[in-house]
């Protein structure tokens, strides 16, 4: 199996893309640490599914907007499984407001969940990787909007643009320690964050028409790329972004 014996922490791991990452990585032999802040019953259900399939998983209730909680999350992963190999900064939100509409409260929340959590999560993981002495990997679930404008959702785009530079500059800083940072940039994905679009036939038709492959991604398709990047088959990749968008960023203006 591609991830046999590796320990992987997934923030926001009990729903959407995060849930599929946990399932896919566990199926390849990884020990899974599921970070969550809500719906503990969903975490328990996911742990049960993983264990029923012969895998190993634990849940950690950690507020990813708190640096101390993120460091504690990493320590709990080490306590549970002995070491840490991969952190997946997956948790994210958006509020779909323009520059002129955005509030300070809304901006702060988006930046805390999307950017601050990735920054200090990376810091916590990197310190553990360096202490272990054998390197490690941070995977950021970013977005095509780390580079591609999306009018009307500016705080989200700014947070993902920051994540872009976290990978590039952070990967350069940490490379001498064998610590790598790679971003994964999905386009439209059929997850709860996009329900307003996918549940509206007219909006979904417009979205499908804008994607060269004709449909949004399924969460498991993002998870499969995570598995590849977390495996030894991608060991020379760092400070870069892998785009998984069905070609949408090569087409019309962002939706």
Task: Characterize the structure shown.
This protein has a seven-stranded parallel β-sheet, with helices on both faces. 45% of the residues lie in helices and 15% in strands. It has eight helices and seven strands; from the N terminus they run βαβαβαβαβαβαααβ. The protein has a single domain (7-246), classed as NAD(P)-binding Rossmann-like Domain (Rossmann fold), CATH 3.40.50.720. The N and C termini lie far apart (38 Å). It has helices at 16-27, 40-52, 67-81, 104-132, 154-174, 195-198, 201-210, 219-230; strands spanning 7-10, 31-36, 56-61, 86-89, 136-141, 179-186, 240-244. It is globular, with a radius of gyration of 17 Å. The model has no long low-confidence stretch (mean pLDDT 95). It is an alpha/beta fold.
């Amino acid at each position: 199996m591609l991830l046999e014996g590796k320990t992987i922490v997934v923030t926001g791991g009990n729903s959407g893309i995060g849930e599929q990452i946990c399932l896919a990585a566990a199926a390849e032999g990884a020990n899974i640490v599921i970070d969550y802040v809500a719906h503990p019953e969903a975490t328990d259900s996911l742990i049960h599914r993983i264990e029923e399939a012969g895998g190993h998983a634990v849940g950690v209730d950690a507020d990813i907007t708190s640096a101390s909680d993120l460091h504690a999350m990493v320590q709990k992963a080490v306590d549970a499984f002995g070491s840490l190999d991969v952190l997946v900064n997956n948790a994210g939100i958006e509020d779909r407001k323009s520059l002129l509409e955005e509030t300070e409260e809304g901006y702060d929340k988006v930046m805390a969940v999307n950017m601050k959590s990735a920054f200090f999560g990376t810091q916590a993981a990197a310190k553990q990787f360096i202490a272990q002495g054998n390197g490690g990997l941070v995977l950021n679930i970013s977005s095509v909007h780390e580079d591609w404008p999306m009018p009307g959702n500016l705080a989200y785009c700014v947070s993902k643009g920051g994540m872009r530079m976290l990978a590039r500059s952070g990967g350069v800083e940490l490379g001498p320690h064998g610590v790598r940072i790679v971003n994964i940039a999905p386009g439209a994905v059929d997850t709860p964050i996009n329900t307003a679009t996918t549940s509206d036939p007219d909006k979904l038709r417009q979205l499908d028409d804008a994607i060269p492959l004709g449909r949004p991604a399924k969460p498991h398709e993002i998870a499969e790329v995570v598995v590849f990047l977390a495996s030894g088959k991608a060991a020379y990749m760092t400070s870069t972004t892998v785009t998984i968008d069905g070609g949408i960023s090569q087409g019309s203006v962002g939706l």
